[in-house]
Specification:
- The structure is a single chain.
- The protein is of the alpha+beta class and about 800 residues long.
- It contains 27 helices and 26 strands.
- The strands form 5 sheets. It has an 8-stranded mixed β-barrel with strand order 18-19-21-22-23-24-25-26, surrounded by 4 helices.
- A hairpin with a 4-residue loop joins β4 (about 195-205) and β5 (about 210-215).
- α2 (about 35-95) packs across α8 (about 300-350) and α12 (about 435-450) crosses α13.
- It is flat, with a radius of gyration of 43 Å.
Length: about 800
């Protein structure tokens, strides 16, 4: 299968299409008499598509008119509010009004006394005729209505008081500007009618009072109806009950539907018509809403569609009758092939099938240019949808899956390799994301060089790449993976840093291991995940991986409750001096006694817990279990216990404080504890790791680098780490007897540790010969089954007693 290459970005295909379509229209007008029968038959297609489009445009125009009407109402409402506030302000500034409110001119009962109240009502009525309001209220300092005009107003006093209190509260704290007192306005329902209410503070000489003035807004709504040809209905919603205040609609059924319309609804069917609706809240408080509903019928849009449909059909029939004979030949020989090809190509692009080129047929220049423009669009869309154009220029996951589907459909064997860079996140953190991008680009370039013709390479996302090998079986796929892995492991220079890359590869083969593209990708990625967990370069998919993955997820869920259920166990493995065989310490290891599964091996749950915050809880459990037994362990001759820290522990800046709390709780000694962490944990964020390690060292803990020799720790960083000990990875210790070069590596690691003033521990010592050789190489301490397996504290007690008896028996008399 030929490797796809992304085409160069084409010019803007939309502009090209517009230019060529313009030329095509001119051509069709000039040669109408010679247009083919197919073009006239396509008129039916145009009719069936155009009329709904016109109707849709009409609906959009109606919706737009509703928006315009709403905006006009908002603007007019603001203008009328300002105008009416000014009218109220003029009343307040009137000399007669001022004199009426002057305490000196009032009878002994005061402004609101029974002797003066009729005068206030008449005063409100006189100014109402001049200012245009239909309802006015004088209120006392606390907002209680005292004088109302007209006296026989049907508006309940409770409604007036509620509006007064709400607007009065809104004015609280507003400063005066000179003698101008603050005012507020809103549209409300009073006595079942709609008013624009203005509340203004009256700065009388003796104390603060309020004036409420209500202006009817029905005429404003009817004027808006005449100006914009939009029906308006004003609805009051109080205590869950909707009530129509004003409506310019005559049909009571439609008005009732609009009044009870659900919030957000944009359309209602009534009286044999469909109406478009736009709602605008004029008042929205806790116990009341006043909503303006603007509505227009869609009947004119439907009528326009019917009219256009009739005109188009008339034109089509007349055209067909007039030009059928003349157009038949032209349609058959020239237009039909070109148009058919273009329509098929457009449908192909619409199905997101971008592989087949658009054919350029026929003698008509405009059709050829249109086909060329359509093909340019196809190439551009293909590149956008199927390629990682931002970074590697490789096909993306969608493209890879599509090609994999095609390969599987042929019935031939297919192998898929999914590749992932190990520790790619460390490159981003240590060198920067720009360097990480360049690393991915370099990886893509090397894949292009090493992958042989016929294979298909893609970037799936992140640091994941995939290679499809049509016709390959498991053996051929493994050979290809080894060749690819060797190429990718070659060092690379990035911003002055030498990056030693290691890639893991997961392999799956069809039809033996999968029968679909999605399943192949999922299983290949699962094999890659297993490869990274096992630190293997290449891993072939095994059905057991699926069962193991499901089991591990279930196990991790149960592990969350293991601590509270008392299922965790502490085991200890002895550490021995290789020079004099003294017991110098032990390593604390976590075990899980599952009620159904029995003793769960740590490799079955620790790696998965390390990917979650749960690992920090497990670390604290182990630490607490150790410090609780510190005195008893010292009595057994174990002066120091090593405890493992995960990456998440090391990144936790609160860890030292948590350990201090446990030491204080059990009166334990930090100097009798060694905290072990791995190279990868330190190098993930070396600055933060060093900060945590330094704080732990200052508290008296001994610090150790576990699994040393994996190749991640730079010597430049090692000398700056505040550690006391190096622990050589067991892979090197186990290989000493079979590989002389491995022994040389162990000797070099021991020398490096000693040069930095660190003690060196070998883990994985399984026989006396290896222990003896390590002692000869200068290694300080050993740990492994040769000395003792991990065991509970009670068993360790028996082990130490038996060890003392053996040592006593072999001592000379």
């Amino acid at each position: 299968m030929k490797q796809a290459n992304p085409p160069e970005r084409a010019p803007d295909f939309r502009a090209v299409l517009l230019r060529n379509l313009s030329g095509g229209v001119k051509l069709l007008v000039l040669v109408l008499a010679t247009t083919t029968l197919l073009v006239l038959l396509m008129q039916w297609f145009v009719v069936s598509r155009t009329v709904p489009a016109v109707e849709a445009n009409a609906r959009e125009a109606i919706d737009e008119s509703l928006l315009v009407a709403r905006d006009v109402w908002v603007r007019r409402n603001q203008e009328r509010t300002a105008e009416q506030m000014e009218r109220v302000a003029l009343v307040q500034r009137d000399q007669g009004f001022i004199e009426a409110l002057n305490p000196a001119s009032q009878p002994p009962g005061g402004l609101f006394g029974p002797g003066y109240l009729p005068t206030l009502v008449d005063l409100l009525g006189n100014f109402g005729e001049r200012s245009g309001y239909s309802l006015a209220v004088f209120a006392d300092t606390d907002g209680t209505p005292k004088a109302v005009h007209p006296p026989n107003s049907a508006v309940p006093a409770a409604e007036l008081a509620a509006v007064l209190q709400r607007l009065k509260a809104g004015l609280a704290g507003q400063p005066r500007r000179g003698k101008v007192t603050p005012a507020a306005s809103e549209v409300v329902a009073l006595g079942g009618m709609a008013y624009r209410v203005v509340v203004k503070e009256l700065g009388t000489q003796d104390r603060q009072r309020w004036m409420l003035v209500a202006f009817p807004i029905e005429e404003e709504l009817r004027a808006l109806r005449q100006d914009l040809r939009v029906h308006l209905t004003l609805v009051s919603e109080r205590d869950g009950v909707s009530r129509t205040l004003i409506s310019t609609l005559a049909d009571t059924r439609l008005v009732a539907l609009l009044s009870s319309l659900a919030p957000g609804a944009a359309q209602v069917d009534a009286v044999g018509e469909t109406w478009r609706v736009r709602s605008h809240a004029l008042l929205d408080v806790a116990d009341e809403r006043v909503v303006l509903r603007l509505a227009r019928s869609l009947a004119p849009a439907a009528a326009e569609g019917q009219r256009l449909r009739g005109e188009l059909w008339t034109f089509a029939v007349l055209g067909l009758a007039a030009f059928t004979a003349l157009m038949a030949g032209w349609s058959r020989w020239f237009v039909t092939p070109s148009l058919t090809a273009l329509v098929n190509a457009a449908r192909q692009v619409g199905r997101q099938d971008y592989d087949a080129a658009v054919p350029v047929l026929g003698p008509v220049r405009e059709f050829r240019q249109l086909a060329s423009a359509l093909d340019t669009m196809r190439q551009d869309l293909r590149a956008e949808e199927y390629f990682d154009r931002r970074l590697t220029q490789l096909p993306n996951r969608l493209h890879f899956r599509r090609e994999l589907d095609k390969a599987l459909a042929q019935g031939r064997p297919v192998a898929v390799l999914v590749l992932g860079l190990n520790r790619f996140k460390e490159v981003n953190r240590r060198i920067g994301y720009a360097a990480g991008d360049r690393l991915l680009q370099a990886m893509a370039e090397r894949l292009r060089r090493v992958v042989r013709p016929g294979a298909f390479t893609a970037r799936l996302g992140g640091d994941l790449f995939a290679v499809m090998l049509p016709g390959a079986d498991a053996k051929a796929a493994h050979f290809a993976a080894r060749r690819i892995g060797a190429e990718l492991e070659q060092p690379l220079e990035l911003d002055g840093h030498r990056v030693d890359r290691q890639a893991s590869i997961g392999i799956v083969c069809a039809p033996a291991q999968a029968d679909g593209a999605d399943q192949m990708l999922a299983r290949a990625e699962l094999a890659l995940s297993v490869a990274k967990q096992r630190r293997e370069a290449i891993t072939h998919y095994d059905p057991a991986f699926d069962r193991e993955s499901e089991a591990n997820l279930a196990l991790l869920s149960e592990l969350r409750h293991a601590r509270d259920n008392g299922e965790l166990r502490l085991h200890l493995q002895p550490k021995v001096s290789l020079h004099d065989q003294r017991l110098v310490g032990a390593e604390a290891l976590l075990r899980w006694q599952h009620p159904q599964r029995g003793l769960v091996p740590p490799g079955h749950f620790i790696p998965y817990a390390e990917d979650t915050p749960l690992i920090k809880d497990l670390t604290l459990w182990v630490f607490e279990a150790v410090v609780a037994q510190q005195l008893a362990l010292r009595q057994l001759g174990i002066p120091s216990v090593s405890i493992n820290l995960s990456t998440r522990d090391l990144m936790d800046l609160d860890l030292p404080a948590k350990l201090d709390s446990l030491l204080l709780k059990y009166q334990a000694d930090a100097s009798g504890l060694c905290l072990e962490t791995t190279e990868s944990a330190v190098m993930g964020d070396i600055g933060r790791a060093c900060q945590t390690l330094q704080r732990l060292r200052e508290r008296g803990f001994k610090l150790s680098i576990d699994d040393f020799g994996e190749g991640q720790t730079s010597m430049r960083y090692l000398k700056d780490l505040p550690v006391h000990e190096l622990k050589i990875d067991m892979v090197f210790i186990k290989g000493m007897q079979t590989d002389v070069r491995t022994e040389s590596i162990v000797k070099a690691l021991i020398d490096v540790g000693h040069q930095y003033g660190l003690s060196v521990v070998a883990e994985g010592v399984e026989n006396a010969a290896v222990a003896q050789r390590l002692a000869e190489l200068g290694c300080d301490e050993g740990q492994g089954w040769h000395f003792g397996k991990p065991m509970p504290a009670a068993e360790l007690r028996s082990w130490t007693q038996a060890r003392r008896q053996r040592q006593t028996a072999v001592q000379p008399p």
